[in-house]
Design goal:
alpha+beta; BirA Bifunctional Protein, domain 2; Rossmann fold; 2 domains; eight-stranded mixed β-sheet; 15 helices
């Protein structure tokens, strides 16, 4: 019987891993350019870390279990909580603000579908200890730069929860959740019916207005001069100053009981219903995990959905050299291969004692850029015949000189 991989997981073979690492490195470079440093947290955590934020109901969506010591453990379903737990455990006294990013896999027990898996990867960041419009704008700018670096086509939507919370203040928490469910689905008929059932039909037009307003003056015409008005205007002004394209959306309802201020989302234009690839905003979590209250702003990017949206592509690659030799010249071939690798050149050698023709054919099929041929003549002279497998041109040259030619051919 052939053993299959677990449902909702995937195997990544070298060609796909080359694509994933290529995009991952682009994102790492962007995060570093903003001054963010990488953090890594455990793959499994205490269950309470996630239930204290999201409630016991989340257990059914997690890979939760008891370890041999009887402790309730779970594979992490998301990373923000783990990062803030790490901050509380070891970085509360560090100078603020803290600029952290992460790239790691998460696990959720849910029905697998296109772009949604039980094991999936997130790239995200957390800005801890800065409570200002400039901080909000920086995190949004970082999220935009990260997605742009991947080449994915997306729309960035930015809003703020204060206007919606202002309108919903007349409702109790259970009623607010019912209204948010309708707003999240953008179902105006459901929203109207829900508000009617709650005997608050007067909220329908204002709430509908939040979802359609295209400018800040329209928003504040609905809500009046709420306390957060100047901060909202300042944040959007900073985004405009950086020429960041976005759509205003004050109807974002997801996470209303988690986020506290600015919220933003990103959507790919070719993924159908499951098209959200970015979600983030301003929040406060540290006090839930035993730390002092601290403002935070962060986001998570669905790395797998980004790759699905990008589709097939050929990442930029470094030159690869296949060393072609005979059994008698293998010692010279080893010396040449070692010199190339020390110079940072990817180098492969034949392991099956095949003839020159078969070795060259294999090199072409494997995608090698050059062949370094070492026959008896080359071995005696301390040279190689460097063959460009793209053009077919070749020249006898010293291994030292070949290094410069190979590096200069990068394409």
């Amino acid at each position: 019987m052939m053993i299959q991989k677990p449902r909702g997981t995937r195997d990544f073979l070298p060609p796909e891993m080359a694509q994933r690492r290529f995009i991952e490195q682009k994102m790492r470079d962007v995060a570093s350019s903003f001054g963010y440093g990488e953090v890594v947290t455990p793959m499994f955590e205490e269950q309470e870390l996630f239930t204290i934020k999201s409630g016991e109901g989340i257990i059914s969506e997690m890979y939760a279990f008891e370890d041999k010591g009887g402790r309730k453990i779970t594979l992490r379903p998301e990373i923000t909580s783990a990062v803030i737990r790490a901050y509380v455990n070891g970085a509360q006294m560090a100078p603020k603000p803290l600029r952290w990013f992460y790239f790691a896999e998460c696990f959720r027990y849910e029905r697998p579908q296109k772009g949604r898996y039980r094991q999936f990867w997130q790239f995200g960041s957390e800005l801890i200890g800065a409570d200002s419009a400039a901080a909000d704008a920086e995190v949004i700018a970082l999220s935009y730069a990260l997605l742009k670096s991947t080449g994915v086509r997306f729309i960035l939507k930015v809003g703020h929860l204060a206007p919606m919370k202002h309108l919903l203040a007349v409702l109790d928490a259970p009623a607010q959740k019912k209204v948010m469910a309708a707003l999240d689905k953008r179902d105006m008929e459901m929203l109207e019916t829900t508000l009617s059932g709650l005997e608050h039909s007067e909220l329908f037009e204002p709430l509908k207005g939040l979802t359609t307003a295209a400018t800040l003056p329209e928003i504040f015409a609905i809500t009046g001069d709420i306390p957060e008005k100047s901060r909202i205007e300042e944040t959007f002004g900073y985004l405009d100053a950086q020429n960041i394209p976005y759509e205003q959306n004050f109807g974002i309802a997801r996470g209303l009981d988690y986020y506290t201020g600015m919220v933003f989302e990103g959507f790919a234009d070719n993924l159908g219903a499951e098209n959200q690839i970015l979600g983030g905003g301003v929040y406060r979590l540290a006090h839930l995990f035993g730390g002092k209250d601290v403002p935070s702003c962060g986001f998570g990017i669905g790395f797998d959905r980004v790759l699905v949206s990008l589709g097939e592509f050929t990442p930029e690659t470094k030159p690869v050299v296949a060393v072609v030799c005979t059994p008698e010249t293998r010692a010279a071939a080893y010396k040449t291969a070692a010199a190339f690798r020390e110079a940072g050149i990817t180098t492969v050698m034949d392991l099956l004692d095949r003839g020159f023709g078969a070795q060259l054919s294999s090199a072409l099929k494997s995608g090698a850029t050059f062949a370094a041929v070492i026959g008896e003549k080359e071995a005696q002279a301390g040279t190689i015949t460097l063959k460009d497998l793209g053009t077919g041109s070749q020249t006898e040259i010293s291994p030292e000189s070949a290094v410069g030619v190979i590096h200069g051919s990068r394409r």
